[in-house]
Design brief:
By secondary structure, this protein is of the alpha/beta class. The chain has two domains: 184 residues, Rossmann fold (3-Layer(aba) Sandwich); 128 residues, Isopropylmalate Dehydrogenase. It has twelve helices and eleven strands. It has an eleven-stranded mixed β-sheet, with helices on both faces. α4 crosses α6, α7 crosses α8 and α7 crosses α12. The longest helix is centred in the C-terminal third of the chain and has 25 residues. It is globular. The two termini are 36 Å apart.
């Protein structure tokens, strides 16, 4: 029998409301055995999006009932929710009855193995640090995300948790990113690189150079040196480490370029009869490209460094994208990412 997985979901987070989280939860429960998904939110809102009202013909059972394969979806009431405009400190002090707080706290008290939310990133970070705690020596968790490359998936971190990282933060991120890729992606001895403005040893600021020296002398990490921005999507490394400011800018620029390319191709294939003809022949190739680099497949950023899995879904995620975030949480639990991070490096490394 497969391992039982328990996921806690902040169903009120995100731009599209509970509908997305509920549909994705039922989809996962139907496709995977032995999963319990606890959806936290205001019950009067959640009730509007039960399977019957969504016309999900493949789902016959109402909330809280078994879904034929040992899985279940449970609705849990929360009096309030965290809005996108709430400041993290205020949410931490005044939203302890919110769906986000209760979902994160479910991991702390042991009724869930991982938490997923598409809500306010700053509030989620604050609640994660307060309730789940970080490993000893880790001041702030790192936001990490898998991205597609020409070869294999690559993990990039930090993507905004710490705008300015010191040497110790960069080394911690390299260690945790390496464990993640070994556990979740199955990469043996992941290649770890520091994102820099050049490949020469003299390039970069003092923190980057000191982190490089520390990683070169750390046998736990397969450190390969510096990597430049144009090498990320070529698959030159399995783990790319940087501070949160650089990482967030790099990710947003990448997303913008991808959107521009998609828009330009669509325009080229629709603005003339010749373009439409070429588009017909190119359609199989375009579909393959879309499947390979579909951002929905890579939805879900992990807060590494916390003593329990916490996943941030994109706020605008649709059902398929949120499903990918649920799958990411499930894989982290199955592969014991938090436990293995602690076991491999121990408190002495932090």
């Amino acid at each position: 029998m497969s391992k039982s997985i328990r996921l806690a979901v902040d169903a009120m987070g995100g731009d599209l409301g509970p509908r997305v989280a509920i549909r994705a939860a039922y989809r996962l429960a139907k496709s995977q055995p032995n999963i319990q998904i606890r959806l936290y939110g205001q019950l009067e809102e959640l009730a509007k999006y039960t399977p019957d009202s969504l016309d999900l013909s493949s789902v016959a059972q109402p909330p809280s009932d078994l879904i034929a394969n040992g899985s279940e979806v449970v609705f849990c009431h929360a009096d309030s929710f965290v809005s996108m405009s709430d400041k993290p400190a205020q949410a931490l002090r005044h939203k302890q009855d919110s769906s986000m707080w209760l979902a994160v706290d479910a991991v702390r008290v042991g009724v869930a193995d991982a938490c997923i939310s598409a809500g306010n990133t700053g509030a989620l970070m604050a609640m994660g640090r307060h309730l789940l705690k970080t490993f000893a020596g880790v001041d702030r968790p790192a936001i990490s995300k898998l991205i597609p490359t020409a070869k294999n998936d690559c993990l990039m971190l930090d993507l905004g948790a710490s705008v300015k990282c010191d040497t110790e933060h960069l080394v911690h991120n390299a260690l945790m990113g390496s464990v993640f890729m070994e556990c979740v992606a199955g990469v043996d001895r992941p290649r770890v690189a520091l994102l820099n403005i050049g490949s020469e040893d003299i390039k970069g600021n003092e923190q980057i150079r000191l982190a490089a020296a520390a990683l070169q002398n750390n046998d736990s990490v397969n450190y390969i040196g510096y990597i430049e921005g144009n090498q990320i999507y070529a698959g030159a490394a399995d783990v790319v480490v940087c501070d949160g400011f650089v990482g967030n800018v790099a990710l947003k620029v990448s997303e913008g370029v991808a959107q521009l390319m998609a828009a330009q191709m669509k325009e080229s294939f629709t603005q003339s009869w010749y373009g439409r003809l070429v588009g017909q022949f190119a359609r199989p190739l375009l579909r393959k490209w879309q499947r390979q680099f579909d951002p929905d497949r890579y939805n879900g950023a992990s807060f590494l460094g916390l003593q329990g899995p916490l996943i941030k879904s994109h706020g605008g995620a649709d059902e398929l994208a949120f499903y990918a975030a649920l799958e990411l949480a499930r894989n982290q639990v199955l592969n014991n990412v938090a436990e293995k991070t602690y076991e491999q490096f121990g408190r002495d490394h932090f």
